[in-house]
Design a protein that fits this description.
single chain; alpha+beta; 2 domains; flat; disordered N terminus
Length: 335
Amino acid sequence: MTAVTAAPRAASKPRPTRWVLRLHRPALYVWAGLVLALAALLLALYGPLADAAAEGWRQYDACGWSERKCAYDQDAIIRYKDYYNYATIALGVLPFLVAAWAGAALVGTELESGTAHLAWTQGMSPARWLAVRLAVAAAAVTTGGTALVWLHHLAWTAGRGRIDTAKSWYDTWSFHANGPTTVAFALAGLAAGALAGLLLRRALPALVLGALATGAVQALAQTAMPHLWPAVTRVTSLKQGYAGVGIDLDEGIVTSTGAHAPVPSCPPEDALSGCHASYAKADAVGFFHTYHPGSHYWPLQWTTTALLLTVTGLLVLGSFLMLRRLTGTLKGASA
């Protein structure tokens, strides 16, 4: 009889993705619950809430300008408006929540408590440790954020032409909640929070710094957005007035030489006659209006998203550079 020798069991390799999911399971549950709650609200806005508000406005518009008492469903109109604002603001706040969590829990707490150093001694390199955390978090943020943006766009579309108080496409909150810039903002917040955690290595300060950095990124993107795509300029006569509705960039008067100038000041005594004397003194023959019309919505969305993803890439690069510097410092201290 020949003896069968059992082969030695291969050493188990670390599974960083499973480790991250297990370590941050409560945060994933909270994120899933938040996404489901907002999704349910947006579906209600798309369906029954929008239908009820539209019927209320139909009843109100049917009254015309009559002075008689008119019955209409005012509660449905107000309810739709309030819930739409709640859902839209919640989507706008998501990037700050992601940044705060990334700075405090994803990176800051693990460095502060020593969990990160333990992982580095278990066969996982610091670079892989950070890459897995960012990748898992980015996948969750992108998946949930994309679903919410799509549902918000459906809810917003359901109110167009049916609800008189529905937000315009160029409303700042609705503009971002309806498109991919919201997801890009959240990814930038994730990267900003991770970098803050690596810089400060403490949960609470990293939470604050990550949120502040996300606010700075949003302000930068909002300022740059109107200039990322060529705007339209419409010239009209003084009698016609300004024309065009959208995201405003500039407006003023057109002189007889074709030059564009700011609107002249109009004293009260001239305002009663339509400021004709002020315009004549300024040699105005018409008005100009530089703006982005509705057809520029998606070009502005995609160019702003590209800008945000570029900033996100720079923040991620900064995080890896900071991690390399940090691990080098730790090695030098231990030596």
